[in-house]
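Dear colleague,

As promised, here are the two records you asked about, laid out in our usual form so they can be pasted straight into your sheet.

NAME FIELD: protein one
SEQUENCE, THEN STRUCTURE:
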Amino acid sequence: MTSYKAADSKREEFRKYLEKAGVLDALTKVLVGLYEEPEKPNNALEFLKLHLGTAGPDAPDVEAMKVEITELRTRKEQLEAENQELRGRLQQYEAAPAEAAEE
């Protein structure tokens, strides 16, 4: 009887540990995701590995990154336009002395 209580105690301790570490929540979310999949994957274990193994960035981080990407793309386009304009000016200045020398 004592070993039964000791095993029960260890199980409860382990369950509390998993709960505190967030493992139970993560497993529950992945299993719910698998349950809600319209087409069940052929390999459920791969599904679990894929969704458990890669803990992506938090939603606020993703949103901040999207905003930053948009800003950087806009800045890149501005710099490319400026670069084209400056190249055009440079060609004008390089062509002007050559034309003046011919005259």
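NAME FIELD: protein two
SEQUENCE, THEN STRUCTURE:
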Amino acid sequence: MTTVTLQEAKDHLRIPEDYDDAYITGLLAAAEGHVAGYLGDDLPEPMPAPVRAAVLLLVGDLYEHRERQNDRALYENATFHLLLNPYRSHEVL
């Protein structure tokens, strides 16, 4: 299985209802696109557990911080990089 499913994302977010399905599907597409760009290649197939976890981590961040402005500082999650760095393409362009 290559992509993270809507049900996996909803389980990760702990959302049993269906009212945000379209929104979460969009977040999944954005997160997978960002992860693929960060890796410098297409998403690996089959998708290793650390890459899957990074996609879900990003979906969670995007869902939780859906507003552009916050009243508190947001910090980059180092776990995202720790999960993905072993899978990054190191090709010289």
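A couple of things worth noting about protein two: The CA atoms of residues 6 and 64 lie 16 Å apart. The longest helix spans residues 21-39.

Best,
R.
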